[in-house]
Amino acid sequence: MRGTRELLLRTLLVLIFLSSLCIWYMWCSDSSVPHSLPQPAAAKPVPDSSGTCKNCGTELTIDQEMKLYNSQWKKEGSNFSKFRSQLTSWCHGITKAIITQSNTPVGTKVEFDGEKKKLQVTPKLFSTFIKDQPFEIVTWETCAVVGNGGILVNSSCGEEIDSAQFVIRCNLPPLDSGYEKDVGNKTGLVTANPSILLEKFEGLMERRRPFVESLSIYGDSFLLLPAFSYGPNTQVSLYAVYTLQDFQSPVRPVFLNPEYLRRLAGFWQDQGLHAMRLSTGLIMASLALELCTNVHLYGFWPFPQHPHGHHPLTNHYYDDRQSNKKVHAMPAEFRHLLHLHGQGVVKVHLGTCASNPT
């Protein structure tokens, strides 16, 4: 009797095992049953509004910007006067843009605009300041602000640029070696980033003559140095002043006023431009709008393709070194300038120039 029960129990266990195996096999072999967990629905791709897709983005951005560009430009005097009045009330560029012995006497503490640092003006430092503001007694009818964009290549804008009464250039650009046809060679003011002095001229710690000789193409122009933005800028900027004095160069070194730069940054932020630091080009364009009755911008184009034909461009007309995109907001700055162009406040030149400027 006991043996019979054990046999029945074993038989029952075998049947249960076989039934389970059969059910598992049928489930696995049924192709209509998914074998994996259900996946979430694929997200719809978000359109790329940045204009940076590999083959089309840059062209889309260029086309969008060019829709805002009016090649048949006409100055609107009321718009110009209104914008200039707003800019002047914020920045006072005519009296504040340059550090002078008049606005920064001995004992003044200069507050840097790029870092939390103050420097007291000593008699020795004071002696390096220009005596009076160079822009207080003169304004110009026409000014050309020349950026260094690759869009200037084959532009034939040199003659037109040189026809302006006052020409402002940025970051010690080359004007010889065949560039004259596109960029001209007349210069009233040229800026110099201290990084150029450090990289190209070894901080003026060794041979200084090459630096002086490189400036000969700028004649007796003002050399504008941001000596009080960051601590390391100060000493190399002073070395530049001493070098020009020692070699009796006609170039006239002056220092950008950090107070003016702070005011200008506040003005553009109020206009809706948010950038870590303004580019030299925008700073110079802003200054020109206070100094000049008619402002023309050349070489301002922050994109790697030409607006007409979309052929590739180098970043600068003389090299392809890239700007620091983490610090400067070039496309955003350009859009603001393009907006002013559309309002008849400033003329942005894109493409080739007329052979006979008027």
UniProtKB/TrEMBL annotation:
Ranges annotated as spanning the membrane: 7-27
InterPro entries named in the record: Glyco_trans_29, Glycosyltr_29_Sialyltrsf, GT29-like_sf, Sialyl_trans
Protein location: Golgi apparatus membrane
Any single Gene Ontology cellular-component annotation: Golgi membrane
Source species, domain of life: Eukaryota
Gene3D superfamilies the UniProt entry points to: Glycosyl transferase family 29
GO MF terms, alphabetically ordered: alpha-N-acetylneuraminate alpha-2,8-sialyltransferase activity
GO biological process: N-glycan processing; oligosaccharide metabolic process
Keywords: Disulfide bond, Glycoprotein, Glycosyltransferase, Golgi apparatus, Membrane, Signal-anchor, Transferase, Transmembrane, Transmembrane helix
Membrane topology: Single-pass type II membrane protein
UniProt similarity note: Belongs to the glycosyltransferase 29 family.
Protein name listed in UniProt: Uncharacterized protein
Organism whose genome encodes this protein: Megalops atlanticus
